[in-house]
Amino acid sequence: MIKSRGSAELEASFTMIPPQPPGSLILIDWYRSADSKEYFNRIKNKKQRRRFGLLEAPVLPPHLSVDTVRYKVFISGKSGVGKTALAARLSGLDIPNMHYETTGIESTVVFWPVKLRDNGQVLFFRLQLWDCGENALRRFDHLLPSCKEQVDAILFLFSFTDRASFEDLSNQIARSSEPSDSVVKLIVGTKFDLFMHADVTDQDVRKFQEVWGLPVFRMGADVVGAFGEVAPLLNALAESLWHQDCMMVGAARPSPATGGPGPRPGV
Ligand SMILES: Nc1nc2c(ncn2[C@@H]2O[C@H](COP(=O)(O)OP(=O)(O)OP(=O)(O)O)[C@@H](O)[C@H]2O)c(=O)[nH]1
Ligand SMILES: [Mg+2]
C-alpha cells in the first residue's frame, strides 16, 4: 500500500477527477483499420517508425490535410525504471539494453494520428516527450521546474520488478503536480515482461487504481501487430489530452464544426 505524509488528502483530491471511459471521444481500434493506413504510413519509413526532429512533421498530400495538436508530456520515475526506454518505445526507436543514466533532459517528438468518434475528423497528435534522468533531476534544481512548465501530461512510471518504485508513486505525483491542476496523469508499469521477478502484483495495481482513480498501463508484454504495444497508451494519452482541452474551452464534447478546441500553438 502506498502511503506517505499527507497522502490520504492527496489521494482524495485525485479521486475527484471524473474517469474518462476509454473510447468515448476517439476510435481506439482505428489504427488497425484499413482507412487509417494512409495516415499511419506518414509516421513510418518502410516498416520502421519515422524519426521526427523538433521542427519536422509528417508530410501529407492535400486530400489528407489534417490539423495537428501539440502537447508537452513529462516522463517521471525513479532512476532505472525505464523512462528513456519508454520514450524510445513510444517513438519506435530501439530500446537500450543497458541502463545509461540520462544526464539531463532528452526530448523526443512522437506523432500519433487519431480519429474523433463524434465527427470522424482525423487529428495528428504531436507529443513532445520530456525525459529527464532522475539523478540529474535531484542534482540540478532548475530541471524539474523546466519539465513542469506548461506541461500538458505526466506519465508516472514504476517498474513491476522494483517495489520501491511503485511505493514511490505518491511522492512522484505530489512532486510533479497539484491536485487541482489540469495536467493529464497516467501511470505506466514497466518491465511487465520480467514476470518471474515481479515485485508488484495485479492486486497491488487494482488497489492503486481504486484509491487514486488513475489508469495504469503495462509495458513490456508481448503484443501482436506493429503498433500493438504502444497504441493503448498513445490512444489514452491523446484521448485524455483532448478531453482536457474540451473541458478547458467549456465544451463537454468537441463541436462538429471545429472538431473540438482546435489546434494549439507550438509547445
Ligand atoms: N525487460 C525490460 N527491460 C526494460 C523495460 N524498460 C526498461 N528496461 C531496461 O531497464 C534499464 C533502465 O532503463 P532506462 O530507460 O535507461 O531507465 P531510466 O528511467 O531512463 O533511468 P535514468 O535515466 O537513470 O533516470 C535498461 O537496461 C532498459 O533496457 C521493460 O519494459 N522490460
Ligand atoms: Mg534515462
Automatic annotation (TrEMBL):
Gene3D superfamilies: P-loop containing nucleotide triphosphate hydrolases. InterPro entries: P-loop_NTPase, RSG1, Small_GTPase. The keyword Hydrolase does not apply. One of its GO terms (biological process) is cell projection organization. Its main location: cytoplasm. Keywords: Cell projection, Cilium, Cilium biogenesis/degradation, Cytoplasm, Cytoskeleton, Exocytosis, GTP-binding, Nucleotide-binding, Protein transport, Transport. SMART domains: RAB (SM00175). It holds the Pfam family Ras. One of its GO terms (molecular function) is GTPase activity. It is found in: Cytoplasm, Cytoskeleton, Cilium basal body. It comes from the Eukaryota. Belongs to the small GTPase superfamily. Rab family. This is Ciliogenesis and planar polarity effector 2. The lineage of its organism: Eukaryota, Metazoa, Chordata, Craniata, Vertebrata.
